[in-house]
Specification:
The structure is a single chain. The chain is 42% helix and 18% strand. By secondary structure, it is an alpha/beta fold. An 8-stranded parallel sheet has the order 4-14-13-12-11-10-6-5. The protein has a 3-stranded antiparallel sheet with strand order 1-2-3. Helix 6 packs across helix 7. It binds the ligand CCOC(=O)Nc1nc2cc3nc(NC)[nH]c3cc2c(=O)[nH]1 and zinc ion (ZN). The site of zinc ion has 8 residues, from helix 12 and helix 14.
Length: 373
């Protein structure tokens, strides 16, 4: 079995779970936040720094790597692990989301998606078989079925057709999967914001017996309360002995709320993306380091943080580097933001172990947003 989920305990206060995800590249404690390394690197971070932060699994993106450098080069390099010199776990997403969001001129048919490369306009095609073969070449420990992430908002009939096609595509991915004993293929539940379609999607995918399930089609611009409502409806339809992965989430509050609703795995570009313009996550809320008020502030980004950045550098110094466009500046903010979320999930796991995740959520929200920049 490529990937095995071990359920340790369920929080008595909430629906949250403590678990372990056993993979060929190490065991990951869940709930877990997975840093995103779209083009085979978590931008500005080395593998050693990611390990120091405590990252046990990182994401890379099929669509981007298919376009550049090409999955065959990655295969020849020994897969993503060899290519990146990363010996812990890797997850690749099928790139469907990128095709739909990045490239224009795309055409969806039963066969798959035709689109133009966002790099050079070249006409390309990816379908379930191609997405599976590409991800087999990339060699991730966990990879995603090819799906369509319906836009938000979207008409019921469109979402129904799209979801039913995604289920047929999932079947085709299973058939095309070359090495089920080495790589785990996760199904992706779709169905938009329609509970009956979510139910149908979950039923279809659970009947195909995937080793894990992603919940797609969320964090696409819908209000948070609606996302949580769909989660509350969808998660109970999934087997308790398999991991649940909420794609594209997210902010500290959404991670806690998602964990409380039984999500085990999260990914989001937020911490790395906002770090590159100098926005930092702190226990008091977001901090925009370029703000003039930090020019003579010789304290750490976050006084409650034990990370390398906060132990060795000041807000004044990091502000200077970011304003001077010195890359060391965004390396320090990236390191801190990733540590912030990885550490937050460690605190969430501790709270689940002690049956107090509800209280933890209240304490966190009381602090967070106090000094919103
Ligand atoms: C990158 C994705 O390719 C997939 O494996 N499918 C997929 N990805 C998603 C990524 C998402 N990111 C967000 N918010 C930032 N929402 C997402 C949904 C999907 C999805 O439904 N399906
Ligand atoms: Zn820090």
């Amino acid at each position: 079995m490529a990937v095995r989920y071990e359920l340790i305990k369920t929080c008595k206060q909430t629906g949250a779970r403590l678990g372990k995800l056993h993979t060929p590249h190490g065991t990951i404690d869940t709930p877990v936040f997975m840093p995103v390394g779209t083009q085979a690197t978590v931008k500005t971070m080395s593998p050693e720094e990611l390990k120091a932060i405590g990252a046990g699994i990182i994401l890379s993106n099929t669509y981007h790597l298919f376009l550049r450098p090409g999955h065959e080069i990655v295969r020849e390099a020994g897969g993503l692990h060899g290519f990146m010199n990363w010996d812990r776990a890797v997850l690749t997403d099928s790139g469907g989301f990128q095709v739909f969001s990045l490239s224009n001129l795309r055409k969806i048919t039963e066969e798959g998606v035709s689109f133009r490369s966002h790099l050079n306009g070249e006409k390309l095609f990816i379908g379930p078989e191609e997405a599976t073969q590409i991800q087999n070449a990339l060699g991730a420990d966990i990879f995603m079925a090819f799906d369509e992430c319906a836009p938000y908002p979207a008409e019921y009939d469109y979402v129904k057709q799209s979801m039913e096609r995604t289920s047929r595509w999932a079947e085709r991915c299973l058939k095309a999967h070359a090495r089920p004993n080495e790589q785990a293929l996760f199904g992706i539940v779709q169905g938009g914001m329609y509970k009956d379609l979510r139910e149908q999607s979950a039923k279809d995918l659970v009947s195909m017996d995937f080793p894990g399930y992603a919940i797609g089609g969320l964090s696409v611009g819908e209000p948070f309360p609606l996302m949580y409502e769909i989660l509350e409806h969808t998660v109970p339809l999934l087997p308790t002995g398999k991991p649940r992965y909420l794609m594209g989430v997210g902010s500290p509050d959404a991670l806690i709320e998602g964990a409380m609703r039984g999500i085990d795995m999260f990914d989001c570009v937020l911490p790395t993306r906002i770090a590159r313009n100098g926005t930092c996550m702190t226990s008091q809320g977001r901090l925009v380091i370029r703000n003039a008020k930090y020019a003579r502030d010789f304290g750490p980004l976050d006084p409650h943080c034990e990370c390398y950045t906060c132990k060795n550098y000041t807000r004044a110094y990091i502000r200077h580097l970011v304003k001077a466009e010195e890359t060391f500046g965004i390396r320090l903010t990236t390191y801190h933001n990733l540590h912030f979320l990885v550490n937050l999930m460690k605190e969430v796991r501790q709270a689940i172990a002690e049956d107090r995740l509800g209280d933890f959520r209240d304490q966190f929200f009381a602090q967070y947003g106090l000094s919103e920049d």
